[in-house]
């Protein structure tokens, strides 16, 4: 079995274009096209529907790609095991990062990781949780930072880094802010329904936080007046700090600068900060160190909730 051929075919599927795949694999498009045609002749079936700029697998292609990804995953795991046995670390590790907090975590833990494994090529990939889950399950990522509830976990493996509480952030100048705390760790409890007439900045629907916060509004018996939806928790905090509306914020974004006061919600709703890996995937010494560094980082960042 030609593993380079498998990698080339998988790359076509990932890039959805033979042109982009050829560029990424550093081969000519004609050479890659000849490889694909020869393989399709051997199999007796086309592997891709060839639409301009959007190649998609046929039914036969989906079967071939599933097997190809499994074989490449076995190869990667074997190489990682051998690297551990021979104390070599000159290999590549890909890490999925969610927007905002993922990049901050990566830059914080990278120096210690690089010091331990200077020959390791660590590649960050920014993506949202649902895309990350899929990429890990098919072997495109080795690890990924995922913030989600237990109900949102799939068949991948989730390594708990920390639990993070969700707080209600209210503009400090608003009359309903009375009794709140400018420090989230000292925040008193208040029913969300008390703030039903106030405008909110809502997280956008693709976020894993969306279903959790919508359930909180539903339990409180009202649909919020929405100023706008955003992918950024930092933007939500800034709008509250400007006095324009409320927000439901994970603890990490609950800054204590006097412009926002915080309330705890009944039941202290939380979600999990995890690192995700492929089920049955091998975690070598570099992966295990990376997990340890990430866990230490998040446990330090989320002490606000204790």
Structure description:
The chain has 306 residues and is α/β, with parallel strands linked by helices. The chain folds into 2 domains: 1-88, Winged helix-like DNA-binding domain superfamily/Winged helix DNA-binding domain (Arc Repressor Mutant, subunit A); 92-306, D-Maltodextrin-Binding Protein, domain 2. The protein is 41% helix and 22% strand. The protein has helices spanning 3-15, 18-25, 29-43, 59-85, 101-116, 129-137, 209-220, 233-241, 285-301, and strands at 48-49, 56-57, 92-97, 121-126, 143-148, 157-171, 199-203, 225-230, 246-250, 260-264, 270-277. Helix 7 (209-220) links the parallel strand 7 (199-203) and strand 8 (225-230). Helix 1 crosses helix 2 (18-25) and helix 5 (101-116) crosses helix 9 (285-301).
